[in-house]
C-alpha cells in the first residue's frame, strides 16, 4: 500500500482541520490530505474510495478545489451496493454541476438506477437528476421520470414530480408529456405527492400555455376542493404547524390557483369563496398563518376580481404594516409595491407609515420602503415627501445614503415643475450627500442651471454659500466651481437678486479664494482640480484686478505631477501672458447647453464617442461641452474623467503595432510561393521600434526603408489630411497657437469609401479600393491595383502584407505576376481585412513588394496607416 | 425556487452548502463571502430577509449557526422561514438536540436529510415523520450492507486460515 494513502479516518481529518490555528496551517493539512487522496485514487484503491470521497466533500465545503475527485463519484455510482451509491450520488451533487462535461458520463448509470429494483436507489438517482441534470440529460432520461410519476411508492412519485420540474425548466418542449401525469398527481391524498404535484403543475403553466389551459379547465374545481378540505381538516399531528394543517400545502395550492385565475374571470370566480375563507379565518399570530395570509393576499390581487376581496386583502396588508414583527412589515411593504398598480389610492393611505419605514433601523425594510415610496410619489405629494426625505438624508446611515440620494435625485428630476425648486433641492442633496451623487446627476444639474438664465445669479450665490459650509462634498464643489467660473461676475455684483434671497457681499477676492480652496484641497480629485483651473482662467477675464493673483495660482500648478494639470497650467499661463487679445473671447460664457442632446445621450441613443470618430476629441467625458462645432468650449473642457489616459484610439496603438512582431499574420501572395521572406518581415517589424504616427511626411520617412525613393514623401504629405494623424494630442496646441482649424469630423458617408494611394514611388503605384459587405462592418474588402511607373517590365512580382493581431488578413492570389512597363496594364489582387476591434482601432498594414527588373531584385516596403477612418 | 442553501457559523465558517442553480466554484466562494459579510453583521432584532443581487436571502439563526436560503423575488419569504425551521426540527430529531459539531462531523447525514426535504430547489416533504422514516430506512440499508461485508470478509478470512 502506498505510504501516503495510509488514510486517516474522516473523523480524524476533520479534527485535524479544526485544530488548525491559522489559515496557512489549514491549507497545509488540506494539501496533505489531497495528496494522499490523489495517491489513493491513482492506485485505484477500492476499499478507501468511499472514505476518500467523504473527505473530498468536506474539503469542498471548505472551498478548496476538488475536481480530481469527480471520476471517483462516477465509479462509486457505478458500483452495485447501496452505501457506495449513496455517497457517490452525494459527491456527484456536491462536486459537480450541470456545466461539467464529466456529468454526461453518468447518464447511463442514472438510467440503470432509475430502473433499479431497490426503490431507495431509484430515489437517489431521481434526487441527483433533479438537482444537477443538464438539458441533454433531461432529454435522455425524461421517459424514465415520466414512468416513475406512476410508481407504486408515493415517495418515489414525489421525487419524480420535482425531477420533472427540473426537466421542463431545462427543456420546455418536453412539458406536454407531463401534463396528464401531473394532473393525476393532484388527486392524490399523500401530502408529499400533492405538494410536489401542485408545484409541478405551477411550473408547467409557466412554460406551456397549453398546460395552463388544460389545468384551468380540468383542475380548478378539484384544487378548490382540496384547499377547502385542508383548510377545514381536523387536527393532524403529522402535518400540524402552530395549529394549521400543512401550511406548505396551503401555500402551494394558493399559488397554483393564482396562476389559474390570472386573466380568467371564470376560474377566478370559482375560487373567490375559498379565498375569502382563507383570508378571514387564518390565524395571524404565528409565522405559518401569516405566510398563508401573505400568499392569499397575493392571489387575491392577481386574479380577476371586482374588488370585494381586494378590500379584504389591502386591509390585511394594512394590519401587516402596523405589525411589530419586522418580517411581517417587510412582506407588507413588498406586497404593497405590487398593490400600487391595482389600487394606488388605498396604498397612499399608508404613506405616513411607509415614510416611517424608510427611517427604520433595519436596512432591508428601509430599502423596500424607499422603493415603495418612490412609486407613491406624484405631482401632488412630491414637495412634502422630498422635503422629508432630504431631512432624513442628514441623519441616515452612510451605507443607505447612496440609495436614498439616487432616489431623491431621480424624483426631483422627474417632478421638477419649476427650475428654482429643482435647483434648490439638488443643492440641498449636494450639500448633504454630494459624494453619493452620480456623475450624470450633477451633469444634468449643470445643464439645467445653464438653461435657467434668470436664475444664474441666484444659483451661483446659493452655491457659494453652500460651498463655504460643506467643502467635503466633491460634487457640490464641482458644480460650485463651474458656476463661479461661468457666473463669477454675477456672484460679486449681486446680479439678478431674487426676493427670497438674503443679500450677500462677495468680493472678487472671495470668489477667487473659493476656487483656490477647491484646487488646493488635498481631497479634490483630478476632475475637480481641472474644473477649478478652468474656472480660474475664466475668472481672470471676469475680474481683471485679480488677474495677477490668478496667474500666480495657475503658475503653481505648472509643476503638478499630473500631466493633464501641468499641461493646462502651462497653456493657460501662456494665454494669460501672451494672448491677452483672445483671452476674453476664449473664456466667454458657455453657450446655453442643449438639453435635448444631453438627455438623448443619457438615454444612450447616440453612439459612443469612440465610434463617431477617432480623431476629434469628441468624447465629451463630462457631457458639458458640445462637440467640434464649438471648439473653444471644447478646448476648455478638460474636466474629463478619463483625462490621464491618452484619448480613445491613439492610446493602444503603439502596443498593437509592437505586438505585431510577436505574431504577424503573414500572408504571402502568389499561390505556391513559399513564405521565404517571413524572417525578414519579422526583423523589419521589429525594426519599427517605437511607433511614430504619420503626422507629416518627415516622420513617415523613419518608417520607410532606406532604399526608398524620397519622392514618396511628397505624396505622403498630401495624404496626411485624411491620415490617422494624432489629432488626439495635437488640437489644443494647434488652437492655442492660433493656426490650424479645429479637427475635422470625418464625414460618415455610408458605403462609399475613398480609394487610397497606398504607396507610390518613382517606379510603382499601389491603389487601394475599399468596399464592405452589408451586415459585416468589421470586414473590409480591399482591391489593390499595382501600376508600373517605370519603363521596365517587372517579373516575379510578389505583394505581401502583415497586420497586427487585432486584424485578420486574407490575401487572394494576384491576377498575374508580371507587371508591364509604363502603366501599360496592371495587376490586381484582393485582400480581406477583418477588424476585431472595429470602431475602436483603425486599420494598419505593413506591405512589402518584391519584383525583378533588369534581372535585379527589388524590394520595396512601407507601413500604411492612412486608411480612411470610417472603415 | 430555492437557489442555494448555506449554513454558516457565527465565525463565518461554512458548514453546509447546497446549490440548486449552477454556480462555479469561484462564484460560490464569492457568494459565501458576500452573504456572510451581510448576514453576520445584521443585528438580532432585524427582519430575516436580505435583498441580494435581485434575489432574496432568507436567513435564521439557530444557536451559533445561520441557516440561509436564497429565493426568487416572487417567492414567499415567510414560508421559507418555516422551511428552515422544518429542516432544523428534522435535524434535531435525527441527532437528538442537534449542535454545530453534529453537523460538522456528520455533514453527509445532514446532506441526506436535506435531500429528503428539498429537491430541485423545491420542498419535497412536509411531514417530519416521513423524512425521519425514509432516512432511517436508508441508514439501515447501509448498516446491513456493512454487516454483510464484514461477515463475508470474516468468512473469507476464516476460510483462508
Automatic annotation (TrEMBL), chain A:
Annotated segments matching region Disordered: 635-676
Domain GAE: 751-868
Top-rank taxon: Eukaryota
Ranges of compositional bias, category Low complexity: 635-652
Keyword terms, alphabetized: Cytoplasmic vesicle, Golgi apparatus, Membrane, Protein transport, Transport
Transport as UniProt keyword: yes
Gene3D superfamilies registered for this protein in UniProt: 2.60.40.1230, Leucine-rich Repeat Variant
GO cellular component entries: AP-1 adaptor complex
Matching InterPro entries: Adaptor_Complx_Large_Subunit, AP1_complex_gsu, ARM-like, ARM-type_fold, Clathrin/coatomer_adapt-like_N, Clathrin_a/b/g-adaptin_app_Ig, Clathrin_app_Ig-like_sf, GAE_dom
Topology versus the membrane: Peripheral membrane protein
Record Pfam families: Adaptin_N (PF01602), Alpha_adaptinC2 (PF02883)
GO biological process, one term: vesicle-mediated transport
Chief place where the protein resides: membrane
Signal peptide (from-to): none
Record-stated family: Belongs to the adaptor complexes large subunit family.
Function: Subunit of clathrin-associated adaptor protein complex 1 that plays a role in protein sorting at the trans-Golgi network and early endosomes (TGN/EE). The AP complexes mediate both the recruitment of clathrin to membranes and the recognition of sorting signals within the cytosolic tails of transmembrane cargo molecules.
Protein's recorded name: AP-1 complex subunit gamma
Automatic annotation (TrEMBL), chain B:
InterPro entries in the cross-refs: AP1_sigma, AP_complex_ssu, AP_mu_sigma_su, Clathrin_sm-chain_CS, Longin-like_dom_sf
GO cellular component annotations of the record: AP-1 adaptor complex; cytosol
GO terms assigned for molecular function: clathrin adaptor activity
SUPFAM superfamilies (alphabetical): SNARE-like
Record's bilayer topology term: Peripheral membrane protein
Superkingdom: Eukaryota
Location of this chain's protein in the cell: Cytoplasmic vesicle, Clathrin-coated vesicle membrane; Golgi apparatus
Keyword Acetylation in annotation: no
Domain AP complex mu/sigma subunit: 1-140
GO biological process: cytosolic transport; intracellular protein transport; vesicle-mediated transport
Keywords: Cytoplasmic vesicle, Golgi apparatus, Membrane, Protein transport, Transport
Family to which the UniProt record says this protein belongs: Belongs to the adaptor complexes small subunit family.
Function: Subunit of clathrin-associated adaptor protein complex 1 that plays a role in protein sorting at the trans-Golgi network and early endosomes (TGN/EE). The AP complexes mediate the recruitment of clathrin to membranes and the recognition of sorting signals within the cytosolic tails of transmembrane cargo molecules.
PANTHER family linked: ADAPTOR COMPLEXES SMALL SUBUNIT FAMILY (PTHR11753)
Subunit structure: Adaptor protein complex 1 (AP-1) is a heterotetramer composed of two large adaptins (gamma-type subunit and beta-type subunit), a medium adaptin (mu-type subunit) and a small adaptin (sigma-type subunit).
Protein name per Swiss-Prot or TrEMBL: AP complex subunit sigma
Species per Swiss-Prot/TrEMBL record: Gossypium hirsutum (Upland cotton)
Organism phylogeny: Eukaryota, Viridiplantae, Streptophyta, Embryophyta, Tracheophyta
